[in-house]
Amino acid sequence: MTARKVLFFVACIWPSIAALDLTAQDLENLQIHGFATQGFLYSSHNNYLTMKSSDSSLQWTEGALSVSDALSDKLRVGMQIHMYEMGQFGGPNVLIDWASGDYRFDDRLGFRAGKVKVPFGLYNDSQDVDSLFLWVLLPQSLYPDDNRDYDLAELGGQVYGGLDLGTKAGRVLYAGHLGNNTLDAKGGYMQNLAEMGLTFASPPSGTVYGGDMRWLTPVRGLEVGASAANYTLDGTGPQGTFHLPGSIALVYYIQWNRGKLHLAGEYYRDPITPSFNTADGILLVPQDGRAWYPMIRYDLTKKLQVGSYYSYAVNKAADTSVPENYSKDWVVSGRYNFNSYFYGKLEGHFLHGTMLGYYQDTNPNGLQPNTSMLAARLGFAF
Amino acid sequence: MRKISLNLLLLAVSLSVHCAIARAQDVFIIANKDFADSQITSAELRSIFTGVRSRLSDGTRVIPVTLKGGPVHEVFLKNYLQQNPDEFRICWRKAVFTGKGSMIRDFSTEAALFEYVSTVPGAVGYVSRITDPNSVKILTVIR
């Protein structure tokens, strides 16, 4: 089923749902929701995220449909299918975004098993749901769209819950997870490996485990937290093997929502040393990835939001003066909600450095160190 | 005579608008009669209506319900959650699309919401006026 067929299907069923006055079909506890978006990129120089953005590109279409049912007070099951086409990434196939059974004993303890979204930082588990954000592109230093299908979810289980610390100390939310994950055959990591001359019969896979702790402080709207994730990867191909030993990625985050003002920021570190064992010998490629961003959003009216962020990423294990080892992105953005379902976004990017988002295939003549880019997105959700 | 009538009409419209605004300054928080307590803290209420908690401190399960939209809905969101309708909707959509929760139940009219709260154990919601005070429990919010 192609992306456009999925969107056509969603568009076809939408009037029926609206006619039945079921903004989200709700037959007792059964719920059906969905969203669809169309993106646009125009860049001054380089082609971004494998789209022909320097010629202006509409090669960015996404949609999802979620079905869930509460079987009892404590047990809920559900599934979400998702498709995306972003330049050479994704494709016409419909993927399972998440599919899980969720048993909540009470607010202090619950379990979730199946294909579950990974809690990491402020937005990892929601980064593919465009309707939630002001931004066309989240800070790519932490939430790279080309790699999100690997980062988003794992096959495994989660334990989660929350604890009251008293009226003067707020509340703590926690989550722990363990599972297995496989690189997306049509994602950015595989494209990077292919550009290094490594191909695989089946994409590398490995274990993932970690946790997240979030403190909802007694200061209204202020949340701080930290997440950690340990992941391994192994793959074998005609040219040799690829191995990523266990490495821990850490992120610290803070956000503050107060009336019309919303502030957020994260700091991330991910030191890894992948190894490639080929006929030429063993090659170790140490990397020390660090990233951070501050973000501000202001609600000008009920329908109009504006904001800005500065996203920075660097590989400290390499020469940080070389553009391919860093990425800096100044962003200004606006979003207008036409109604409860439809919205539009417009965003300007001022990119310096080429560490993130660029691929040889779509930039065969090399990369310019700086790029300006206009991004837009139209979407609806129900 | 026509001018006097017009002035009276304008006065009546003005008064009714004024009364509507006055009514819309706050809402009644109502719960099913099985609620053990008739008080709730603002922090608890906020946690319940943002999906952070599904039970009260004493273990009672709660089912939050809202209106689909309108001034009463907006007053509730502003006074008790410090959110606008879009923020509130996004908060619940996040739970739905990440597989962590279900969308909050909402109603087109206050009468339908009131009926649901009065008949479903654990239900909690809000209305601008109480039509039958004996069928629900009116909660006092402790700030």
Provide an overview of this structure:
The complex is a heterodimer of chains A (382) and B (143). By secondary structure, chain A is mainly beta. Chain A has helices spanning 3-19, 148-152, 188-195, and strands at 26-27, 30-43, 60-70, 75-86, 89-90, 95-106, 109-117, 153-164, 171-182, 205-216, 222-237, 240-258, 261-272, 275-278, 281-284, 287-299, 304-315, 326-337, 342-352, 370-381. Chain A has one domain: Porin (Beta Barrel). Chain A contains 3 helices and 20 strands. The two termini of chain A are 22 Å apart. Chain B is α/β, with parallel strands linked by helices. Chain B has one domain: 3-Layer(aba) Sandwich (D-Maltodextrin-Binding Protein, domain 2), CATH 3.40.190.10. Helix content of chain B is 45%, strand content 18%. Chain B has helices at residues 2-23, 42-49, 71-81, 85-97, 110-119; strands spanning 28-31, 39-41, 63-67, 105-107, 123-127, 137-142. In chain B, strands 2-6-1-5-3-4 form a 6-stranded mixed β-sheet, with helices on both faces. The interface between A and B is large, with 47 and 30 residues.
CATH C-level of chain A: Mainly Beta
In total, the number of strands of chain A is 20
What is the terminal separation of chain B in angstroms?
A: 52 Å
Beta-strand portion of chain A reads over 45%
Give the uncertain stretches of chain A in residue-range form: 1-23
Assign a percent range to the helix content of chain B. 40-55%
Q: Any low-confidence stretches of chain B, pLDDT <50, length ≥5?
A: 8-23
Largest interface: A-B, 47 and 30 residues
CATH C-level of chain B: Alpha Beta
- What is the total tally of β strands of chain B? 6
Largest sheet data of chain A: 16 strands, antiparallel, barrel
The domain count of chain A comes to 1
Shape of chain A: globular
Give me the number of helical elements of chain B: 5
* CATH architecture descriptor text of chain B: 3-Layer(aba) Sandwich
CATH-level-2 architecture of chain A: Beta Barrel
Secondary-structure element order of chain B, N to C: HEEHEHHEHEE
